[in-house]
Design goal:
Alpha-Beta Plaits; alpha/beta; 6-stranded mixed β-sheet; 309 residues; 4-stranded antiparallel β-sheet
Length: 309
């Protein structure tokens, strides 16, 4: 695979279980040495200059990286020493990271009392103490409810905007990649499948999915094919489904043509093309089908550790 993450951008890695997302991240964070090829962090070869490369990045792994029987502040204090932050700067860095992750009020509580979202935000806070040029997140919102996921991303994006930090993250949440990523790279079995902007990737599908419920199905099929060059992809009794590029422009014309022929449209549904559709087209199944077992295991493990198990 070969791709670039632009400075100050947000880049998402998507792929099924075993695709190589975590392996790639571990190479970039110098935990694994590549057997061949090159990888650079802001121009530094991660094989030749691992220590310098590590000094430019913040990393949050999938695995739990906190001590639950310590407070949030104590966890960050330990990490500040691990990261060799000068003693004179530790308190400032800790307070700054807690503030960005909205955890100041909870910083003196034991971590095992934290919610899942707070737990994850503290892990990210630890990574932010090094003031990274690039923040690398492996499944940053795994197992969190939608509100907690939004809170995590609000904090990350706020930090990114203030410090111009680059963000690279792996996720199985398609909506997350679509909403927050400037660029997406899909990988499978250790190989790059495709890279592009979310809106460009969705063009692979061929447009938005339109479903019509009509009386004269055969006549509608003919009108749509002859006047607009659109093929029906699914049909069932009186329901037709087809794909339309720029549906907001084309669909009104289709409806006008049907009205002119006095054809009644009983029901109309439009669903915009999604990254899930792209994944299904490229991989043959939803990413959730691939990830379900592993995600349940990781989520269960995180819950157990937070409860002190």
């Amino acid at each position: 695979m070969s791709f670039d993450v632009e400075e100050e951008s947000i880049h998402a890695l998507l792929g099924p279980n075993g695709a190589g997302k975590t392996t790639l991240i571990r190479i970039l964070t110098t935990q694994l040495t590549p057997t061949k090829g090159t990888a650079y962090i802001f121009g530094l070869d991660v094989r030749k200059n691992p220590q310098q490369a590590r000094g430019m990045l913040g990393y949050v792994p999938q695995e739990v990286s906190l001590w639950t029987d310590l407070t949030g502040y104590e966890n960050l204090l330990i990490y500040s020493k691990i990261y060799e932050i000068p003693k004179s700067e530790r308190v400032k860095r800790i307070e700054e990271a807690l503030d960005f992750m909205d955890l100041k009020d909870a910083s003196r509580r034991l971590v095992k009392t934290y919610s899942g979202g707070m737990f994850r935000r503290l892990e990210i806070a630890a990574a932010l103490m090094v003031r990274p040029k690039i923040l690398i997140l492996d499944e940053p919102t795994i197992g969190l409810d939608p509100i907690a996921r939004n809170n995590v991303w609000e904090r990350v994006i706020s930090y990114k905007k203030e410090f111009g930090t680059t963000v690279l993250f792996a996720t199985h949440y398609m909506d997350e990649a679509d909403k927050y990523a400037d660029m997406i790279t899909i990988i499978n079995k250790g190989k790059q499948v495709i890279s592009g902007k979310p809106e460009d990737l969705k063009m692979i599908i061929g447009g938005d999915r339109v479903t019509l419920k009509v009386d004269n199905k055969e006549k509608v099929k003919a009108i749509i094919a002859e006047n607009f060059g659109i093929d029906i992809i699914e049909e069932n009794s009186d329901v037709l489904t087809f794909l339309v590029e720029k549906s907001q422009l084309v669909l009104p014309r289709i409806l006008s043509a049907l009205e002119a022929e006095k054809i009644e449209v009983k029901e109309l549904r439009i669903r915009e093309a999604s990254l899930n559709d792209v994944f299904i087209k490229l991989m043959g199944k939803r990413i959730e089908e691939e990830e379900e077992g592993r995600m349940k295991e990781l989520i269960s493990e995180r819950k157990m550790i937070r409860m002190g198990g």
